[in-house]
Design goal:
Three copies of one chain form a homotrimer. Chain A is α+β, with helices and mostly antiparallel strands. Chain A contains four helices and eight strands; from the N terminus they run ββαββαααββββ. Chains B and C meet through β3, α3, α4 and β8 of B and β4, α2 and β5 of C.
Chain lengths: 138, 138, 138
């Protein structure tokens, strides 16, 4: 069986992080499925999804590493194409990836106690993000 | 239901990028399934899959960051083992990862308008890559 | 159909790598399913999963790049929160990601001959890791 749940999250620009674990927990609960996998997918090429201990320090540390890897104020060939300023966003989002798949059994996701599912905005401006949670199970 | 589709893509060496979105779109269409997930997996340890706005600038920006992270001409312990020259390929491919899972509903993949599925060759020589698209749905 | 298999792996601290391919191969075999996907998920926010040619040189090369990206002895805001010393672990694990999905068909995983599934410990101390292998197929 397949159950699709779409959610919208408003973000405030590059580095803005959202704990979306509860969206996934409630999608699993509403699906009434006992076991399977939940795929979390962010629509668009300038945001990404991963897991982290969701506290401001760890999120800031991750953002600092991304700033070193792909500085926001750096020069990007992507900027030459459209006059955009978000070359750093595309690089960061492609590296981290738009999707994550988490198993669940007996209606419970296999997350650790200090492991949350995070949407990380990479774009340089606020966005409304669509998060698709796709549950496949039985 | 599960539907498997295998595809072959010829690549031209490190940094060569291919938009494989159409392979996944047509695999979903041929599966006749209405909703589910499509897993895109590249066979081998020196290539990777992600999503990106597939235009030459953004792809070049991503490759430049990989070249800074794991320079092609750098020294790698992997080279000592086999006399290979592709230590940078292994590091880059492991970082980006070989697989991506994309939901679909009403026969339509949940991709953004500017979000394509990309195969990124990391090896230092041309390869024939096998891409497995595995559709699981109903 | 869904089959869940949980495994425990004892690790020796940051950079310790384990080839967990056989766990996944045997979970597929025991599931008796012919085709589908196997999701490999590590519970916790300081370890990660990817594929690599599992030989000590390639693993060391990857760890060296992580040490450059997020040095173990660096300063992390995460340390200020709990007095932890594993800020580098959180950054590395979030970047690489906790999960991987591999297709299988005719009971055989779609891995290359030199492509193994690796658990990479990122934490600064030994851990007992739970690896969930979730098989969804038919």
């Amino acid at each position: 069986m397949v159950v699709t749940r779409r959610n919208e999250v408003a973000t405030r620009g590059q580095g803005d992080a959202h704990d979306v674990t509860d969206l996934v927990v409630s999608a699993v609960a509403e699906s009434q499925l006992s076991g399977g996998i939940a795929t979390v997918f962010v629509v668009g090429s300038t945001a990404a999804v991963t897991t982290i201990e969701f506290e401001p320090g760890a999120v800031a540390d991750l953002n600092r590493v991304f700033e070193a890897l792909a500085p926001r104020a750096g020069e990007y060939r992507h900027h030459l194409r459209w006059g955009d300023d978000n070359g750093s966003s595309h690089v960061r989002a492609a590296l981290l990836g738009p999707s994550l798949t988490v198993p669940f059994a007996e209606r419970k996701l296999a997350l650790g106690a200090w492991q949350q599912i995070m949407l990380l905005e990479m774009d340089t401006r606020p966005r409304r993000r669509e998060i698709v949670v796709q549950i496949v199970g039985e």
